Amino acid sequence: MSRDLRNVAIIAHVDHGKTTLVDQLFRQSGTFRDNQRVEERAMDSNDLEKERGITILAKCTSVEWNGTRINIVDTPGHADFGAEVERILSMVDGVILLVDSAEGPMPQTKFVTGKALALGLRPIVVVNKIDRGDARPQEVLDEVFDLFANLDANDDQLDFPSLWASGRDGYASEDEHAREGNLEPLFKLIVDHVPAPGLDTEAPFSFLATLLDRDNFMGRVLTGRVQSGKIDVNDPIHALDPDGNVVEVGRATKLLAFDGLERVPVEHAQAGDIIALAGLEKATVSNTIADPVVKTPIAAQPIDPPTLAMQFSVNDSPLAGREGSKVTSRMIRDRLYREAETNVAIRITESADKDSFEVAGRGELQLGVLIETMRREGFELGISRPRVLFREENGQRMEPFETVVIDVDDEHSGTVVEKMQRRKAELTEMRPSGQGKTRITFSAPSRGLIGYHGEFLSDTRGTGIMNRLFEKYDTYRGVIEGRQNGVLISMVPGEAVGYALNVLEDRGELFIRPQAKIYEGMIIGENAKPDDLEVNPMKSKQLTNFRSTGKDDAIRLTPPRVMTLEQAIAYIDDDEMVEVTPENIRLRKAILDPHERKRAKRAAQ
To answer: What is the number of other CB atoms lying within 10 angstroms of the CB of residue 309?
Structure first.
């Protein structure tokens, strides 16, 4: 088959400029009309992706260049969304590795690149942001070569072509000193270096489902690459699971190809094409969709197991139901199962009382994104502290470990090393990375990292960068100390009073403002001491008919610490919860009644 077609994936670490580069590929290939209004970072499909500047969902797109159709797959750069990455790479014949000219290869780059090299894909390396003041392009290229060698790349893969580029300004060049131009060298390199699919169009139709989403009109839509043969609309098909059992039989009611950012209906597709297919109700990711004569499934990548779990429960606080529109356990259950249907890295277990659900996933970020999405949809939830999932191997308890790469200013490196070692992390590498910064690498138990990020930012005055990556399951490392300070707990329901908060500031740091709605058992601040303290944030000034000698001073409160969702989840202890509503994120004790709390504490000892 000699049709001009190239399938390529773009790999990059979070914030290395992948989505911006794809924008420029669209513009320069003529995908957009000159007068067409296009949003920045067009491939970031939802609000959360745009706000955080990260790719959460893998997406397909396609451009035409000089008669060659180039299908581009945008991959998530974060390991928490790794389930997407592994399957995506089976659809392509080459990868573009995008690396920041100052930061160099990062842990998530390593994660995805390792998967790509293991599949035998030949990489193209693009050193991006070449116009940065602190760029060190040649060193970064050497680091990429070392990374490939460490990942057991073969000689063919080590002999990779490279380009210097600025995705934002839309140029790529073989000359590292170039500061203008266009992306023609990149298009040319893709066409010359990435092989055409070269699949058999005469064999019976087969297709491996790698992405799954739902459409209100078409139902289940499976995306993947046609591995062999041809298919027309309404052809009979069946789905096989990885063991070769028939999952269901049906017809291909709709075929969609990718054109720029759009999915366009097509009448037929053939081997090598990346398409979306509708018409099946049960088939899922890793299933083989094929002509009924095909009985052998296509080998699919196994999905890495979840390492972290949280309890999602119905919001039972005294303020429940006032801010959200979706508050019942049935609504939460339906939404979670709908998520698990399209997000195969998530596993859901319903509790016996049907009021809570254990949601297991690949990391805090992945579960945090799910909670934030549900919150924006109008859900109210109670969220427990994350816990890691242990395993038993040969009678030994095993726990997940992560590789942690930290970039900090030299002056803060001692504090970071001390804090990480308290959390049972092992220092594996420490080296200067130039411009007064140090790069420190640890192997740390996932348990120890829960709740550390906020403390890390405080310790490094907000200048540190931390990147984490699942590494392995290893022997259990024993007890890890948790939060050092206790909390201030409200003992009354109502609205907080400025006068009372002013008095409480001496006790510790506050999380609420005057007039904030509070209830018994709600956490309103952090105690300066290790014990929890029950306080009355509604106490007002005693009024008498005696005139006071001095004039009352105006109350000046320190601004409260307002936590993001991830910070709140990381902050809480085992006996606490985060109450999430569309308008507020509140911290509370799991048991609101103080007497019940004491009883439960005594029973646990």
So the answer is: 18
